[in-house]
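Quick one, T. Sequence first:
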Amino acid sequence: MYIIGENIHIISPKVKEALEARDGAFFAALAQRQLAAGANALDLNIGPRKKDGPEVVNWLLDQVLPVAGDALISFDTTNLAAIEAGLQRVPRGRAIINSTSAAPERMATVPPLAAQYGAKLIALTMGSGMIPVKADERVSIALEQLIPRALEVGMNIEDLIIDPLVLTVSGCQEYCPECIEAVRTLKFAWDPPPKVSVGLSNVSNAVPRELRPLLNRVYMVMLMAAGVDMVIADPLDSELQDTIRIIEARDASTPVGKVYLTLFDRTADMGELEPSDVDMDDPAQAEIFKTVQVLLNRVIYTDSYLRF
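Structure tokens:
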């Protein structure tokens, strides 16, 4: 699984504080830790940063590029000047623009920039309004707007990454199974199919901290089964990394590993994990089953869903 490390994110208080203090050692160390843990790319999320976006991107690159090796750099901001400043610093083919939507003002400017600099482009399946709930609506945006525009400006389809948009299970629960279906459909909707990426941890936004890792792990398995190619995720989450390893190595040596593999196989076959697949007397297996039911919108999410 290709992992874009999400940890350099302005929403993090530690990142925000280190950026304000221009603590270069903090960012170099954080980049190194993510790469050592298995990240293939580093996301630099600076937010809109309207006033000083180019300066901030250039400063971050001064800290990160010396330790990045062959890792790609993802520029995660709506500030187009900041993105271009970054693209001018990174060798051709080693950058990701995160992201464009299908909104007219973004479609007019961002894909041409990606084509100009040979950057990969994450394209979100939404326009100017609300994110569509249904999978087929999201896929239609990709097929009718995002892919044609990328090809129109001269991008290679291999450089386009479609993001069908993971939303939180808390308040947007009906989106969770639809996103899985959108991933599945996108892998068959174009020849050759575009890469598909998601922001994994979005699924557990606004839920108690102790529930987040489990939701992320279970959703990861389901998305892998649907065919996702890449995730923006926390590479420092060792349990998430082990779950990915279990699926990729098909390691059924533990009861939990066996359940995850069964979940993967059932989802890949467009089925569902059944109660008979799980030993409900084993708390870890029971938690996985309950989480699947929530992510499939079979059981209404509450912060206490594991207790019932």
